[in-house]
Amino acid sequence: MPTPAPTPAPQAPREINSLADKLLEVHDWLRDQLVHLRAEADAHFAARAAHRGPGRPPAPGLGLQIRQRCLEFCDTLTFHHTAEDDHILPGVLAHHPHLRDTLDRLVDEHRALTRSKERLLALLADIGTGDAALFLAEFDRMAGELTAHLEYEETWLVPVLAQVPFPPAPPGPQDPPGAPGPRER
Questions:
Q1: Which of 13-22, 36-45, 52-61 has the lowest mean pLDDT?
Q2: What does the pLDDT read at residue 178?
Q3: How far is CA 175 from its chain centroid?
Q4: What pLDDT score was predicted for residue 133?
Q5: Residue 54: pLDDT band by 50, 70, 90 thresholds?
Q6: Are the CB atoms for 123 and 130 separated by under 8 Å?
Q7: Within a domain: residue 137?
Q8: In this structure, is residue 55 part of a structural domain?
Q9: Which phi and psi angles does 134 have, rounded to 5°?
Q10: C-alpha span between 117 and 110 (Å, rounded)
Q11: Domain extent for 157
């Protein structure tokens, strides 16, 4: 039976003062979920492999839990990358046009991660009886791609986003709509 991955030590909540802090908070959550999902998948497949006797192995409750957590993870990843593509990256480009190639690479990586996520979700549909080695290999491939992407993104975006307060201060009563708030001036 495979040894489950170690559970990471709980992290103290990150203090959020800038958009970079918020980005890192989301990235920390995504990384943490990868560890938990891998451990749950290992446990599920070990329980399935331990089944002896006639008929199909009973569907462990962990299979449903993996499915739910994977879907939550994938939904969060999609939301995160859509928000970056639609809101964060265009703003960074407007103020830092020299980062165009970097931002284009990030968008391309978002698309590649979407394809990996879709392959993983297709395998997840058959988590109860599907090929364990294939699922784990696809999960590990996607996790490796995502981890490398997060590291690259942090290298380029954290320094830029550290200058953007989060949450943004609301505009003051004398400011026209859309004007920067007092913290943003």
A1: 52-61
A2: 59
A3: 36
A4: 95
A5: confident
A6: yes
A7: yes
A8: no
A9: -65, -45
A10: 10
A11: 19-48+62-162
Whether the predicted pLDDT of 180 surpasses 50: yes
Q: What is the pTM of this model?
A: 0.79
Strands (E), the chain: none
Token readout for 107 is 């968008």
Which domain CATH number covers 69? 1.20.120.520
Is residue 131 scored above 60 in pLDDT?
yes
Angstrom distance (rounded) from CA 134 to CA 60: 19
- Two structure tokens written together for 136: 């784990």
Continuous segment of H or E residues that includes residue 109: helix 100-124
Q: Which residues have a Cβ under 8 Å from the Cβ of 7 and sit 6 or more positions away?
A: 35, 36, 39
* Cβ-count burial 65-79 (b if 16+ within 10 Å, e if not): ebbebbeebbeebee
Give domain status of residue 146, yes or no. Answer: yes
More confident residue, 114 or 51: 114
Specify if 76 maps to a domain.
yes
Tell me how far apart the alpha carbons of residues 52 and 100 are, in angstroms, rounded to a whole number.
57
Q: Sign of torsion, CA 23 185 93 170?
A: positive
Provide φ and ψ at 18, rounded to 5°.
Answer: -140, 165
Task: Yes or no: say if 30 and 80 are a contact pair by the CB < 8 Å rule.
Answer: yes
Q: What is the rounded average pLDDT for all residues in the chain?
A: 84
For the segment 154-183, the average pLDDT, to the nearest whole number, is 77
Kindly report whether the peptide bond that precedes residue 90 is cis, defined as omega within 30 degrees of 0: no
